[in-house]
Design a protein that fits this description.
Elements: E1 16-22, E2 28-34, H1 36-45, E3 49-52, E4 57-60, E5 69-76, E6 83-89, H2 112-126, H3 132-137, H4 142-160, H5 164-172, E7 175-178, H6 181-192, E8 200-201, H7 204-213, E9 228-230, H8 232-236, E10 243-247, E11 253-258, E12 261-263, H9 267-275, H10 283-290, E13 295-303, H11 319-329, E14 334-339, H12 345-358, E15 361-366, H13 378-388, E16 397-399, H14 411-423, E17 428-431, H15 452-464, E18 467-470, E19 474-477, E20 482-485, E21 497-498, H16 502-511, H17 522-531, E22 540-545, H18 552-566, E23 571-575, H19 576-582, H20 591-610, E24 614-618, H21 624-635, E25 639-645, H22 649-655, H23 660-665, E26 687-689, H24 696-709
Parallel strand pairs: 1-6, 7-10, 14-15, 14-17, 15-16, 17-18, 22-24, 22-25, 23-24, 25-26
Antiparallel strand pairs: 1-2, 3-4, 5-6, 8-13, 9-13, 10-11, 11-13, 12-13, 19-20, 19-21
Helix pairs in contact: 4-5, 9-10, 13-17, 14-15, 18-24, 20-21
């Protein structure tokens, strides 16, 4: 190590600048100052110390954040008045959460090359089964050199052409994975830096750290698993070390990924730790168990192009673009408002107060990726935002859209949202009451406490790198004709406090009732009524389910006739046999094929509903998870009415003219619902119909009465 007495301490009044560099990546991390005591302490302890000019004392890097520097070496420049300190960092160097105090983009160092080197070394050492890199390294040196040469030449030729088309052409030769909508959202934020410090989908080690303690393997805070879930068949076809192309749903290559990890996760553990309960009533847990692939792949990604968005293009900003906007406007403090709902007058008042209290400018930053099933679609929401944007001072407010796939993870989600906003250049963040809460669990209780998210964010605020602004519950005080925070109203007993809940707002929209001006802006109400007319004018789906022979088809036909007699909307019957003949003739009766058949029915029904028609479906639909998926597809556009035709199995067998049940009991028909395959009885259908000793007309009339009660048809 360097000798202190060899340095020129006099030139800078006893302080020498110390440039800190990552030993592995060669990235410049920060500039600090050392006096003789700080240098001695650094050498003695192996942890980097500086002299704080603002505090006028010795301080250890990371003494509050835990993001320390382990000393590797120290060298002086030729004039002996500047130090180069090489370190192994634990966590980000900057208090803002970036790897470098100079910004991740301005001092990249070796970047991924260091990570790649570590991967290759580990594969060579361990040579795990199935590792392509390990297998290459175990062979004569000529073979890995040859492979590097082959791939290097191809990539270099593509790179020097300065053509994205050439890079795409190179990627086109790779095995492809077609991304799901959620994965597309994740990839976009991985590519543009919204998910910094992530450089790709999590490795198994990082995933385990995130699930168990909200930290990556290197100790950095990250609360949400960002994983590439794939099918077992696809995972089995991939070797460790292999590159794969990542495509959107139209087949466009968005990027490539080097597969460094492959594992089958414990999804129940993930659900418990990340979402607080292994309960399918939580939309993310339901997705985890019933939609996501069984195998996770991890590894760094290389972006080729951002996903193409044809809507609201002027409102879509990458983190770099948004930070550049703030710099151009001279905004040093920015408070972000997270929203997945239309803005009403209470929200406006809340954001005004938040900006004033923080002495900051305002960023309205709505999520336009995947949100909670049943939420207002983002097209309508953005039109609502734009309609009220002129209610804000143009010089202090802007709006940008965030392509995030929400998980509705409550406290963890709030921390995640904070980290994402920090990457976008935000300094303050509004955390709401029950922030990103998914609603009720299977027991009818809230998944999270109303202030759990605020408590966790406050605990980790310094590490997140931005300040939290508490969401104030704003109510309208009629006598004073203004919004006030409910906990600040001292004369509650002497004034009239008005408020309209989300449930009440939806009821008023559904029934065409007045929405007062004190609650929302006329422009917003107009947009909502365009998209959500009264229920009696919306499309809807009636979904019958029950055993074969229960009477579903008969009742569905009777209902169709009654609705057609009433007129007003087109009616389409999607009976099980009709669908099997016209949509699913190639499918068998395995669970996979039956699920696919029901999802096809759900897709057609959702399109009919979206376009204002009535869809009547009458399949067996034995699996609750698949019925729930269809419900979510339909409820984006209108009501979903599940009708359980609760005819007993014994009665269905007695009615069976085709002898199917007899053949099933003899084992001649395999996977027959109720005999050799299960039927998940609906737990909470909109209507349960008994058909034994009940006329078909009466059963159909029960459905009509239910539709009237729900406001779907006029009484």
């Amino acid at each position: 190590m360097i000798e202190a007495n060899s340095l020129d301490w006099k030139k800078s009044d006893g302080l020498i600048p110390a440039i800190v560099q990552d030993h592995a990546t060669r990235q410049v991390l920060m500039l600090g100052y050392m006096n003789e005591e700080a240098l001695a302490k650094t050498v003695e302890t192996g942890k980097v110390h500086f002299f704080s000019r603002s505090k006028q004392r010795l301080w250890k890097k990371g003494e509050t954040s835990g993001h320390t520097f382990k000393l590797i070496s120290i060298a002086a420049d030729c004039d002996k008045d500047t130090l180069l300190v090489e370190v192994k960092p634990k966590g980000p160097a900057c208090h803002t959460g970036t790897v470098s105090c100079f910004g991740d983009d301005l001092a990249p160092g070796l970047g991924f090359l260091a990570h790649l080197r570590a991967i290759i070394r580990k594969r060579k050492k361990d040579n795990p089964k199935g590792s392509y890199v390990g297998g290459l390294m175990a062979r004569a040196p000529k073979r890995p050199a040859q492979k590097v040469g082959e791939e290097g030449v191809e990539v270099a030729m593509a790179a020097v052409s300065e053509s994205k088309a050439a890079l795409k052409a190179e990627a086109a030769d790779l095995v492809s994975w077609d991304l799901t909508p959620r994965q597309i959202c994740d990839l976009e934020l991985l590519i543009n830096g919204g998910f910094s410090p992530l450089k790709g989908f999590l490795s198994e080690e990082d995933y385990n750290g995130v699930v168990e303690n909200m930290r990556l393997a290197d100790g950095q805070l990250w609360p949400m698993p960002i994983t590439l879930d794939v099918s077992e068949d696809f995972a089995a076809s991939i070797e460790i070390g292999q590159d794969i192309a990542l495509r959107d749903q139209e087949g466009v290559i968005l990027g490539t990924m080097t597969v460094t990890d492959r594992w089958e996760p414990n999804k129940s553990r993930e659900a418990e730790m990340v979402f607080g309960a292994d309960d399918d009533a939580h939309p993310a847990v339901n997705y985890l168990h019933n939609t996501a692939g069984k195998v996770y792949l991890g590894g760094p990604v290389t972006g080729i192009q951002q996903p193409v968005h044809y809507d609201f293009r002027a409102r879509r900003d990458t983190p770099n673009e948004l930070r550049a906007t703030f710099r151009k406007l001279g905004w040093r403090k920015v408070v972000a408002f997270q929203t997945r709902n239309p803005l009403h007058r209470a929200h406006q008042e809340l954001t005004f107060r938040a900006a004033k209290e923080s002495q900051a400018n305002l960023l309205i930053h709505p999520v336009v990726g995947m949100t909670k099933p049943g939420d207002v679609d983002h097209f309508t929401r953005v039109r609502c935002y734009e309609a009220v944007l002129d209610k804000y001072p143009a010089s202090t407010t802007t709006m940008s859209l965030l392509p995030l796939a929400m998980r509705m993870a409550g406290p963890r989600e709030a921390v995640w949202h904070g980290l994402i906003r920090k990457n976008h250049g935000v300094t303050h963040f509004i955390v709401g009451r029950d922030h990103a809460g998914p609603g009720k669990n299977s027991a009818g209780e809230d998944f999270y406490g109303p202030y759990d998210a605020q408590d966790l964010f406050r605990e980790l605020q310094e590490e997140i790198g931005i300040e939290m602004v508490d969401f104030k519950h704003m109510v309208y005080v009629q006598e004073r004709a203004q919004y006030e925070a409910i906990d600040e109203i001292e004369d509650k007993d002497n004034v009239t406090i008005l408020n309209i809940s989300g449930t009440e707002l939806r009821r008023r929209l559904q029934e065409g009732l007045e929405i007062p001006d004190w609650f929302s802006f006329p422009e917003v109400v107009t947009e909502l009524r365009r998209t959500r007319p009264p229920r009696s004018q919306q499309g809807f789906t009636v979904f019958f389910t029950g055993f074969s022979g229960s009477g579903k088809s008969t009742i569905a036909n009777a209902l169709m006739v009654k609705l057609m007699e009433m007129g007003g909307r087109p009616v389409t019957l999607l009976d099980g046999d009709i669908v099997r003949k016209n949509l699913s003739s190639e499918l068998g009766f395995s669970k996979e094929h039956r699920d696919l058949n029901i999802r096809r029915i759900g897709y057609v029904a959702s399109e009919i509903t979206k376009n204002g028609g009535i869809a009547i479906c009458a399949p067996i639909a034995p699996y609750a998870a698949t019925r729930r998926a269809v419900r979510e597809d339909v409820e984006q556009y209108g009501a979903f009415v599940e009708v359980h035709v609760a005819t007993s199995l014994e009665e269905c067998e007695r009615r069976d003219r085709k002898g199917l049940y007899k053949l099933a009991r003899e084992g001649k028909i395999k996977e027959f619902t109720g005999i050799s395959d299960p039927y998940d009885v609906p737990q909470d259908p909109e209507l349960r119909v008994e058909t034994e000793n009940v006329e078909v007309d009466n059963c159909a009339h029960q459905v009509i009465l239910k539709l009237e009660q729900m406001g779907l048809i006029a009484g």
